[in-house]
Amino acid sequence: MMVKIGRARAHTNIALIKYWGKRDERLVLPMNSSLSLTLDSLYTETEVVFNRDVDMDYFYLDGKIQDVESTNRVSRFLDLFRNAADMGEFAIVKSKNYVPTGAGLASSASGFAALAAAANIASGLNLDDRELSIYARQGSGSATRSIYGGFVEWRKGIDCWDSYAVAIDDGKWDIGMVIVIVNPREKRISSREGMKRTLHTSPFYGSWVESAKEDLRNIKIAIEERDIESIGRIAESNSFKMHATMLGANPPLLYWEPETIEVMEIVHELREQGLPCYFTMDAGPNVKILCRLSDAERIRSSLEQVFKPEQIIVAGSGPGIAIL
Ligand code: 2P0
């Protein structure tokens, strides 16, 4: 029996300048460049075993065999590695998400980044991080950025081999996020469908792309200066603009829930008290609060007046992929 095995870990990331829309759906080329912070406490570990004696690909997530649809998505992704390494073996893939159970944070970013890193070892391809970022992108856009730790920019590039992430700041300073799990349920409209709808129907889409460009330019300066107020203001505004663009879609996309706005109000109050904290939301109702890591416990205790302790997760800046 000939087996080829690889194991890797990748951390999730939260975008401060959002990716929302593809100019090429098959290659996952984005309409705009984006920028994120990789988080330490949320990650995925994945094992890939290519085995000649296996009759198809099998994908287990948290110990459970997955349905045809998600297995096919993993299979198509593994084909990139099989084609490049000129190998035909099927694989057994076992992934475990290290996120609080039922938090609704299980993310395709850490998932496809860990899968890419593990498949890279198992296939013997020996891709470098930049190439891994290009491969991970074809699994899921946000996974492009999870190859690296700290603050990461995904440059939209001009073609398949030119759209990848670069690490721009290691994040090893007083920065972090407080995540509020407003609702752990699966989102009603996937990001993939949601971004397609927004791009094709929202009259605001062109302005979104233009203004994301400017936000990216400005946030990079603020990160370099470690100016948390500016980083936060730009991120908060960028998230609002993405959601405004989604609201303009037909039919409209509204991911917020009443508790989403409750969190915003708590953040506003804390800010009025002089504590720098800013929120950002993705394709769901949960809220991520960007802050100094040293202020995170103060923010947590304010939130705990309204939310349960298990709804709140504190995260610092996390590392890039690791081979296990
Ligand atoms: C982001 N999101 O930049 C944006 C902000 C959600 C809102 O990337 O279709 O799962 O697999 O490329 O990466 C979520 O979308 O979408 C996402 P695909 P993905 O983090």
Can you walk through the features of this model?
With 324 residues, this protein is α+β, with helices and mostly antiparallel strands. Helices cover 37% and strands 27% of the residues. It is built from eight helices and 14 strands. Strands 1, 4, 5, 6, 7, 8, 9 and 14 form an eight-stranded mixed beta sheet that branches. Strands 11-12-10-13 form a four-stranded antiparallel beta sheet. The chain is globular, with a radius of gyration of 19 Å. Bound molecules: ligand 2P0. Ligand 2P0 binds next to α4.
List keywords for this structure.
single chain; 324 residues; alpha+beta; Ribosomal Protein S5, domain 2; Alpha-Beta Plaits; 2 domains; eight-stranded mixed beta sheet; four-stranded antiparallel beta sheet; 8 helices; 14 strands; 37% helix; globular; binds ligand 2P0
